[in-house]
Write a structure and sequence with these properties.
alpha+beta, 10-stranded mixed β-sheet, Rossmann fold, about 475 residues, 27 strands
């Protein structure tokens, strides 16, 4: 491996040694079965049918390492229908350390693009309250797309500065994940070869941001709650040093605790020193993933327990909440009646959820999600339907959520038509049904929402598919 930046090469050689540096490779493709939609055994069977070779994830029973993604899986119905999520093997570990539980109130403070967020929601079984935040509006678009495809209903999504949440929402959450923005140092060989402008000063800037985000995250945790901090960086300045600084700032309020995963093998203990400076001995309870000898991305994970209240300065920004509607509220009830009538869904099924109705969309949320912070709000729950002149049209996400309950307005395509539809997003001169909106079925599985107007059948796709079935 050739690292064009000699300062970076010297830094990494001092940190891990020349031989280890030469072993850094590329992490294999890895996926995670979305247990809100399916189970890992069903995904295994489908992969075996296609001849895709895979191995189990070393720590996550719902994860698989793909030895050759020749299809690729992003062109499969498994991916389109949300049964699988591309998710880096190392990146699956922080949520395992967080150990989310159904019914809890949880914050993912830097959530986009959403792989860990959907993993948290699956572990919560879509129950409880999951607040997802990111400062980037662009990245939040990808996050919302991942949530919709995965069938997540217990979320509220926000675009807010993470450093302020500690003052705005003190002692609010049972568990908090901070997968902090980082330098990505040592993530993989290709990334190192592209870091031509790297300077040590980058680590100083990054670690200061990480500390302030971490201190804010800690303030949002309830007494006795859990905070997990992670980065995809080898640099101790972004990892052990940040946690050590937090322990010095709040020596009685927080403690590092062991991660409930088997040590050894993939997981190695945290470093005892950062350069020439010793850090708190408990930091050896944190865990590192090195990109050698196994080809995994670099990662650092620490699990913290909040012990006492941390005083926060009063905030002057006005905070507002939005109340979700019940299924009996007049306008929501009318929308649900229309959905039940058009799509043949048992009307009583809708009564188990909360709703958020906007001018054009109907969002369905977990019953625990009765209110949400209005500040920076991007979305609540799952957008299940769009308002049209003919009534409420199901979204792709709505079709997947109600897939076992829809009984009306279903069309079934043969294989050739399905392949053409997913490749082009449309089939011209398709006049087999009256004009309107429908649900697409293939091989006894409801796949998505389609429209048929002017003898053109259309489907909304994230990209063009060379469809693998």
């Amino acid at each position: 491996m050739q690292i064009p930046n000699k300062d970076l090469e010297r830094y990494l050689t001092d940190l891990i040694g020349h031989d280890a540096l030469e072993q850094i490779g590329e992490e294999p493709v890895s996926i995670r079965a979305n247990t809100l939609m399916t189970d890992v055994d069903a995904v295994r069977r489908r992969l075996q049918t296609w001849g895709v070779r895979f191995k189990p994830h070393p720590l996550n029973p719902d994860g698989l390492l793909i030895e050759d993604d020749f299809i690729p899986l992003s062109h499969s119905l498994l991916y389109f229908t949300g049964a699988i999520q591309y998710h880096g093997a190392s990146s699956q570990v922080p949520v395992l350390a967080l150990d989310p539980q159904p019914g809890e109130t949880i914050l993912d403070l830097a959530a986009a693009p959403g792989s860990k967020s959907t993993q948290i929601a699956a572990a919560m079984r879509n129950r409880g309250r999951l607040m997802l935040n990111d400062v980037s509006e662009l990245r939040l678009q990808t996050l919302q797309a991942n949530l919709n495809r995965s069938g997540v209903i217990n979320t509220s999504v926000h675009c807010l500065p993470g450093q302020r949440l500690g003052r705005w929402l003190p002692e609010t959450f049972d568990r908090v994940l901070l997968d902090a923005p980082c330098s990505n140092l040592g993530k993989n060989a290709g990334q190192l070869e592209r870091m031509r402008k790297w300077k040590r000063e980058i680590l100083d800037h990054q670690s200061n941001l990480q500390f302030h985000l971490l201190a804010s995250a800690l303030k949002t945790v309830r007494i006795g709650g859990v905070l997990v901090y992670s980065t995809c960086s080898l640099a101790p300045e972004e990892n052990e040093a940040v946690i050590d600084r937090l322990l010095q700032a709040y020596p009685h309020q927080v403690a590092v605790e062991s991660i409930p995963l088997a040590p050894g093998g993939v997981l190695q203990p945290g470093l005892p020193r950062v350069g020439d400076t010793a850090v708190h001995t408990d930091l050896q309870k944190s865990r590192r993933i090195y990109p050698y000898p196994q080809p995994m991305e670099s990662f650092f994970v620490a699990r913290l327990r909040k012990l006492e209240t941390i005083p926060v300065r009063p905030h002057h920004e006005p905070l507002q909440e939005i109340a979700l509607e019940s299924p009996g509220q007049t306008e929501v009830r009318a929308a649900l009646d229309n959905l039940a009538s058009l799509w043949g869904i048992d009307r009583a099924f809708f009564d188990a959820f909360a709703y958020h109705l906007t001018q054009k969309k109907l969002w369905l949320a977990a019953p625990e999600r009765q209110i949400a912070l209005k500040n920076g709000l991007v979305g609540i729950g799952l957008p299940i339907a769009l308002r049209k002149s003919t009534g409420w049209r199901l979204t792709n996400a709505g079709v997947r959520f109600f897939r076992h309950r829809i009984s009306e307005r279903i069309i079934e395509l043969d294989l050739d038509d399905l392949v053409e539809l997913f490749e082009k997003g449309r089939i011209d001169n398709w006049g087999k049904q009256p004009a309107g909106y429908y649900v697409l079925r293939y091989n006894d599985e409801l796949v998505g929402a389609v429209s048929h107007f002017d003898q053109v059948l259309k489907i909304r796709l994230p990209h063009s598919f060379r469809l693998a079935l």
